[in-house]
Amino acid sequence: VDAALDEANVGRLSDVLKEFLNQSQFILITHSKRTMAGADVLCGVTMQESGVSRRIAIRFEDWPEDSRQGQAAAA
Question: How far apart are CA 72 and CA 75, in angstroms?
């Protein structure tokens, strides 16, 4: 959804999605760090060794807000 968007429009997309959070859930596939920073939960699949895939899920509510900001800036 956000691959062709610049930073300003990624922010606008995030704002629009937040407007609907009380009524809906969204599944987004993205490489945008800014889009990821607005998520409540990140799910991913990684392959650290050949042929072995591993699922990862991170709930941001388990992390302090200041830690989330630092992680987004570092990424």
Answer: 5
Angle at 63 between CA 15 and CA 25, to 5 degrees: 40
50: domain CATH number is 3.40.50.300
Convert the pLDDT of each residue in 22-75 to its tens digit: 999 989 888 888 888 888 899 999 998 999 999 999 998 887 766 655 555 554
Q: How many domains in the chain?
A: 1
Which residues contact residue 33 at a Cβ distance below 8 angstroms, ignoring those fewer than 6 apart? Answer: 72, 75
Report in angstroms the alpha-carbon separations of 47 from 36, 53, 55: 20, 5, 9
Residue 25 sits in which domain range? 7-74
Query: Per the confidence metrics, is the pTM higher than 0.90?
Result: no
Q: Within 1-75, where are the H helices?
A: 7-19, 33-37, 65-74
